Fold this sequence. Notes:
transcription regulation, Arc Repressor Mutant, subunit A, mainly alpha
Amino acid sequence: MPTPSMEDYIEQIYMLIDEKGYARVSDIAENLSVHPSSVTKMVQKLDKDEYLIYEKYRGLVLTPKGKKIGKRLVFRHELLEEFLSLIGVEEDKIYNDVEGIEHHLSWESIDRIGDLVQYFTEDKSRVDDLRETQKKKTTNN
């Protein structure tokens, strides 16, 4: 099981490959705001743990194991963003909140949040009711 730090790298690599078709150490470093040497160390560890294949100066490729986890991590991140937006968290706070909580929730909790998001988005009146409840609470305070 990858550590939270490993998850951040796998997620970022997955997104870069999905977006650009490749992921370079420099791109990963820039997107994660870390030094390229830190990326190289982590990429070597991810290679050793068989999440990716890394060849110095040639780039890297996610293994099937790495792709599967990367896809799930991106899903988790996007689901949590959708959930926080749905419950009315201000847009400018969502990304940092997701970064702060995503590694601390079990996959079971993520699945239940997914159920809740689905419940609310299947029927717009449910979201409207939630917004009305929030408005009343704000007005009463």
